[in-house]
Amino acid sequence: MNGVHDMGGMDGFGKVAPDPHEVPFHADWQARCFALNRVMGSAGEWNIDIGRYWIETLPPAVYLSSSYYRKWLLRLERLCLDRGLVSEAELANGHSTGPGRPLKRQPLSGPEAGAAVSRPNHDQPPRAPALFAVGQKVRARNIHPRSHTRLPRFTRGHLGTIERIQGCHTYPDAMVEKNIKQGEWLYTVVFEGLELWGPDAEVGATVSIEAFEPYLESV
Amino acid sequence: MSGSHQHDHDHEHGSELSEMQLRVRALETILTEKGYVDPAALDSIIETYETKIGPHIGARVVARAWIDTDFRTALIADASKAIARLGLEQKVGDHLIAVANTLTTHNMIVCTLCSCYPWDLLGLPPAWYKSAPYRARTVKEPRKVLADFGVTLPEDTKVRVWDSTAETRFIVLPMRPAGTEGWSEEKLASLVTRDSMIGTGFPKAANEVAP
Predict the structure, then answer these.
(1) What is the pLDDT of residue B87?
(2) CB distance A8–B31 less than 8 Å?
(3) How far apart are CA B192 and CA A192, in angstroms?
(4) Are B16 and A1 in contact (CB under 8 A)?
(5) Nearest residue in chain A measured CA to CA from B12
(6) Which residues contact B56 (CB under 8 A, 6 or more apart)?
(7) What are the average pLDDT values for consecutive 10-residue runs of chain A, which has 219 residues?
């Protein structure tokens, strides 16, 4: 979807503000919210792609004015409501009014849960040989799907070069739209700054994205 | 735009803070009462990201690559596989990619679409990495973003920005600082800053650490 989350190339947000006094969490609720998302995300009720989509579909003004972990809370509340894990009345009252239902998977539990947190592998068996080869010129397709996509707007319609073939990975677009694990070839595609930004590009800058095969066409 | 509104609002305003405290507490209570969530698991996950997973892991990987050519070659070829062989206490996930800075090319990592970041090696991302200015500007004006960090590159150095748009995760392998010949891996690791592994900074100079 053409949402405000797709920020690459936008102006007007001001300077980047490094913080010399960084801590992992600035408040206890942020830490609890983070961990709640990790635990509920391990229950098999949704996956990483669906989780991202439910942040992207926050109203644009809410997305832009909410802190990072506020977005995580809003996403978790909405997903729990959508999956029938909690009710509006329960959220309003702050207590459960009935037992839970069985989850698709046993979520992370116990005092050793932290050691068990891991990033899953995203490899999928290829359905066909890779269409593109390293060094080949490609164009990022001019597509604007309404659902979830990982093709950033700033690359669409532009010419790039296949630099690496990263294997065949779960295709996020199909995961969100059709709830299926579809394997698609994943490429690192590099674009010249001039191609993306014209005369406003910085000299000598290039940008790459990780592009799934359906995002690309041969030229 | 002015003042705190340039930030990602990670430093909350008072009203949002109390609202968030209440809402997170409510959700945790409900999910716990229903038996979905074990509070001990929450504590453990928080402790892991506060105390165990952080840039010290990436720093060790970089320092090893500086002293061990075979490891460096393996790291560039397949970072997940190479790092798994180091026998780190905390396992790292698949699809990790190390990109090496050279005299001619400087690498920077960003996620324009959300906040993808090599958690396994660097811990949770800093607020600025997740902020709108960093996500919006890095792909268009990387040198101006570097200026916000007080970093200036030679004019003829090429800048390569890696947008983390899939489940591949990137770490920058910065160049080894001059004057560190013969240093131990541990001492070298003390030079490796978190920002140098994102590409928004350099490692410390040799004279910046205690002899």
Answers:
(1) 86
(2) no
(3) 30
(4) no
(5) A67
(6) B189
(7) 98 95 92 98 96 98 97 98 97 95 96 89 96 98 98 98 98 97 98 98 97 98
Residues of A in Cβ contact (< 8 Å) with B44: 110-115
Q: Using one digit for the tens of pLDDT, what is the confidence trace for B17-49? A: 699 999 999 999 999 999 999 999 999 999 999
CB contact at 8 A, B133 and A15: yes
Q: Which residues pair with A189 in a beta bridge?
A: A162, A209
Which residue in the block uniquely carries the two structure tokens 């190479």?
B82
Confidence of residue B209 (pLDDT cuts 50, 70, 90): confident
- Residue A67, in any domain of the structure: yes
DSSP one-letter code for B100: E
CATH architecture of B55-208: Alpha-Beta Complex (3.90)
| Same-domain status, A32 and A107 | yes
A167, part of any domain: yes
* Residue B182 Cα, gap to closest chain A Cα (Å): 31
Answer yes or no: is pLDDT of B1 > 80. Answer: no
pLDDT in tens, A37-92: 999 999 999 999 999 999 999 999 999 999 999 999 999 999 999 999 999 999 99
Report pLDDT for B17. Answer: 63
- 3-class SS of residue A193: helix
The domain that holds A197 is classified in CATH as: 2.30.30.50
For residue A144, the enclosing domain spans 137-218
How far the first Cα of chain A sits from its last, in Å, is: 25
B2 → chain A, closest CA residue: A14
Query: A with B: how many residue pairs have Cβ under 8 Å apart?
Result: 308
Angle between helices B14-33 and A68-82 (to 10 degrees): 30
Q: Which residues of B127-159 are buried (b: 16+ CB within 10 A; e: fewer)?
A: bbbbbbbbbbbbbbbbbebbebbebebeeeeeb
Q: Do B35 and A24 touch (CB under 8 A)?
A: no
Relative orientation angle of helices A68-82 and A48-56, to the nearest 10 degrees: 110
